[in-house]
Amino acid sequence: MAGSPRRTAGRRLQLPLLCLLLQGATAILFAVFVRYNHETDAALWHWRNHSNADNEFYFRYPSFQDVHTMIFVGFGFLMVFLQRYGFSSVGFTFLLAAFALQWSTLVQGFFHSFHGGHIHVGVERAALASSPLSPSPSQPPSMINADFCAGAVLISFGAILGKTGPAQLLLMALLEVVLFGLNEFVLLSLLGVKDAGGSMTIHTFGAYFGLVLSRVLYRPQLEKSKHRQGSIYHSDLFAMIGTIFLWIFWPSFNSAPTTLGDGQHRTALNTYYSLTASTLSTFALSALVGRDGRLDMVHVQNAALAGGVVVGTSAEMMLTPFGALVAGFLAGTVSTLGYKFFTPILESKLKIQDTCGVHNLHGMPGVLGALLGVLVAGLATHEAYGDGLESVFPLLAKGQRSATSQAMHQLFGLFVTLIFASVGGSLGGLLLRLPFLDSPPDSQCYEDQIYWEVPGEHEDLAQGPLRAEEPETRA
Description:
mainly alpha, globular, 17 helices, two-stranded parallel ribbon
């Protein structure tokens, strides 16, 4: 059902105009400010007489490919569990990520390194001179870091999945990318926090931004779409494709921005073992709390990935393989119990309608990961890290901080992230509630037909036509 003529006309114009406006604005900003970095520029690269084999592309692009696949395939398919929202889950993931990659390149460039009047881009950040305010070298944006920012946006998208229109989602991304870049700059550049895999900057920020946003957009009459909120056999099967892609490539996600050599190797190894442990704990707890001892596919699709989230901060540290297993097992346990017991409380008591359960997969494991980083940083010693201390904790190696001080900075970084996410989610909710923005009414949430041409949409009589629109609450 297309809806009223007025709503249909608004829907026809809002998304095209907003896409063209945002693309035009970013194109102009790219023309003025964005340039190739020295690894990409033909004149600069050959002027320094480098061997082509030394180009950063050959070391970083494999990791970038894995991260890129996670963003577009992993996140996209993980959210197709809704029985009537598969097109929107994958399609809007595609749209949001494509915009976020461009916008975050600009935002991260302005925050991290506006050098010589330009932003210099490449596949990975290359350190420049230290800034007076920063305890570490300033770094320009990269393809990998833009994907990380897109990941945070998609995590927030998961909290409001099915309840917002594409124009609203683009405006959410417009605001969230700015706050993501600001939060990342404060943590990594000003506070000297270590968070390679983004337990704080990506998962905690994205989850609580989305949860607060969902609270502001609360729909008291969402029960009218309750019959579409569940999954069916093949939608859960497709969602498992996203899970498997994310699970396989998560070691690359956490290790992509780390120092080449032992740091990157250690990060991938710790993530690898943590994911295996979270998978076993998920299966164990799901059967334990499930009806008649049966497994719940929702738990397996999501909680099995919590091991990758929980070691995002500490994976490049000397966590040890045993520590990675313990962390992963704990994260899988907490995440599974969250889906079983805490998600209903969020909606009934706190009025937070968390469609994908991002609080259980990204929120709680992200906070646990940040706290684990506090613990492991506080235990760092010269004896444990040797000469490698400089690559993991440069301020400790230089004698500018003690391990306890680094741990306190890590803890403060978590607090700062929660503040940025909460304030940002509140502002985003107010922005998305503007009355002229198109969003589905309560009786038509979680439905592809509102925004997509669905093949054979009239063949499945069991689904029934969309009900006529009636006065309802809006996002």
